[in-house]
Amino acid sequence: MSTPTTQPEVDPESADILQAVRNDGYAVLRNVIPADEIGAVRDSITQTVSKYSTTPPPNGVVTGLLRKDLSMAPYLTHPRFMTMMTGLFGEHFKISFITGLVNNAGVKRGPMHADWPYNQNAAAKVLSPYPDVMMHMVTMWMLSDYTIENGGTHIIPGSHKRGYAPRFGSNYEPMATYKNEVQMQGKAGDVGIFDARTWHATAENKTNEPRIGVLIRYCPWWLNLKPLTPGSRERRMIVGDDPKGLTAKVEPIPLSVFDTLPENIKPLLNHMVDETC
Ligand SMILES: O=C(O)CCC(=O)C(=O)O
Question: The CATH number of 12-266 is which of 2.30.330.10, 3.30.450.20, 2.60.120.620, 3.20.20.70?
């Protein structure tokens, strides 16, 4: 009789990735979007970001990306990617943020930080020192190569274990260069993944070409995302008006758009549907 196990079985590649994410706080899953399909997705995201970006150039950012662009939809449930996420969070996980990102020539280095819900300036946060629990993963779907020159994200390996992160006014200076930092590098079609606690920073793009990607964050079913939803009662209660924009927002997906998504993605996005439009 076989021994019961509480862990799902994982293939060797996933096992390596899971170990790297647990130990180092980051890893790169190779060749997720097929090479012959990347050009079309990249063109679509580039156009969408240039049309709808909410930040001034040279940064291009579109939050709630699926409201505007569905070109990434077929890839979001790639079997190797899903195996990896299942290994991290179990069977029931969800997308918390989906953002188109174009870092054009001239983007400068940004502050070193941990992401929501660890950002201590946000009203909705996990208090520092935070517990050593994996509860939010950031994935960077690379649509162009990510290199040292064009601004592969700065990452500090192992920093996810610290329970705190740099912020202005703290003992850890966000604009400092840290001696053990590395840059996340990969080819178009790869997916970088890091724990939201891992200290990271936008890197300078020193080339004349944009660095193009889609940033998708994931969490287990139990992480409460309502404080991110504009207009929700819990956001009003916890975050209030937030005039300085300190707590991130994730715009819901209209039901009319959700209905057009591939069936196998819907479980990842059910919680994000705006049934009023
Ligand atoms: O653009 C990047 O490489 C990093 C983006 C980032 O730090 C963030 O969105 O939290």
Answer: 2.60.120.620
